């Protein structure tokens, strides 16, 4: 059955989460027309690199750079419902005692199959596993299980991203330890996440899995889509209104600063119509991984907005769907 969180997701929460559908070429070529609030032309004091506060805030607010946010989120929600109607509801499992500590398991008709664990986005505040189901069918039809995690929104965790990241880690560990029970291969568990979920997935890739009773290479590969990998500029943006940033949290939750802990190949992806900061974050994370000698691939979605990149995870010919299948070996 759909979760309570699904029922509570309003039209406004989907809008705030950030998404994008293709726009007319003129709009796509001029994001500044809607990317930064109108001013008298004067630029304010620089806050981050060459961006003033208005520019930085817009660069971490997806709907500032792409139209039809509400419509694309509505489409993904409808596609996820349609999958349940056509293929049946996923198995629901829990990895902890918290009300949000659960997951949807979409089983392929194969035993000892690889498992793709997905971490949803939503500015660390909204969306859920149920809305992520649209991507499951591609994996199921190609012999892989698809697991979508739920976890508490950060505002119910006192604004602490570390607590959120720990929920994600425990969810992944549960999948690996229990994979055989739902026909999965615990030695072929892969991870993916989009937007704020891309950030959480990247944080999970820096995990010392021995703390969870697992080998260092428990996760065999990671696909981080349109995420954030250094939180310094995020802390300076409007998002600090609901995240209780500290120096310690900023450092611990910035995967770019902990490349030595990453033990799996990483695929980093972004769309060319995303905000300038999301594009920069992806490029710099991939470059840093390469400089550190880590196996990495950078995937670029030409003419893709932010939420288009998430939608492409369910398309075997889209940038993220193709990358996921390649990573898994399908």
Automatic annotation (TrEMBL):
It comes from Silicimonas algicola. Residues 103-207 form the BD-FAE-like domain. The keyword Signal applies. Keywords: Hydrolase, Signal. Residues 1-28 form the signal peptide. This is Arylformamidase. The lineage of its organism: Bacteria, Pseudomonadati, Pseudomonadota, Alphaproteobacteria, Rhodobacterales. GO terms for molecular function: hydrolase activity. Pfam families: BD-FAE (PF20434). It comes from the Bacteria.
């Amino acid at each position: 059955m759909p979760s309570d969180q699904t029922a509570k997701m309003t039209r406004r929460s989907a809008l705030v989460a950030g998404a994008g559908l293709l726009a007319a070429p003129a709009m796509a070529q001029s994001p500044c027309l809607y990317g930064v609030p109108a001013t008298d032309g004067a630029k304010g004091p620089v806050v981050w690199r060459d961006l003033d506060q208005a520019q930085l805030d817009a660069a971490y607010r997806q709907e500032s750079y792409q139209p039809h946010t509400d419509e694309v989120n509505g489409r993904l929600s409808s596609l996820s419902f349609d999958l349940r109607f056509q293929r049946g509801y996923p198995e629901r499992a829990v990895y902890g005692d918290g009300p949000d500590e659960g997951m949807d398991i979409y089983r392929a008709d194969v035993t000892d199959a690889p498992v793709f664990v997905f971490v949803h986005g939503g500015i660390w505040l909204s969306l859920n596993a149920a809305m992520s189901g649209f991507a499951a069918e591609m994996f199921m039809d190609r012999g892989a299980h698809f697991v979508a995690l739920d976890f508490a929104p950060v505002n119910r965790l006192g604004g602490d991203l570390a607590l959120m990241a720990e929920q994600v880690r425990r969810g992944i560990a549960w999948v690996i330890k229990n994979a055989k029970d739902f026909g999965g291969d615990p030695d072929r568990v892969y991870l993916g996440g989009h937007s704020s979920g891309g950030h959480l997935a990247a944080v999970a890739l820096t995990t010392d899995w021995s703390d969870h009773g697992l080998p260092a290479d428990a996760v065999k590969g990671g696909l981080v889509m349109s995420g954030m990998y250094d939180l310094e500029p995020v802390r300076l943006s409007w998002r600090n209104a609901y995240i209780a940033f500290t120096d310690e949290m900023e450092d611990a939750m910035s995967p770019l600063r902990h490349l030595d802990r990453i033990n799996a190949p990483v695929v980093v992806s972004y769309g060319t119509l995303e905000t300038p900061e999301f594009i920069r974050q992806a490029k710099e994370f991939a470059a840093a991984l390469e400089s550190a000698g880590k196996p990495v691939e950078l995937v670029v979605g030409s003419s893709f907005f932010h939420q288009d990149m998430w939608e492409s995870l369910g398309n075997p010919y889209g940038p993220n769907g193709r990358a996921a299948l390649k990573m898994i070996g399908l």
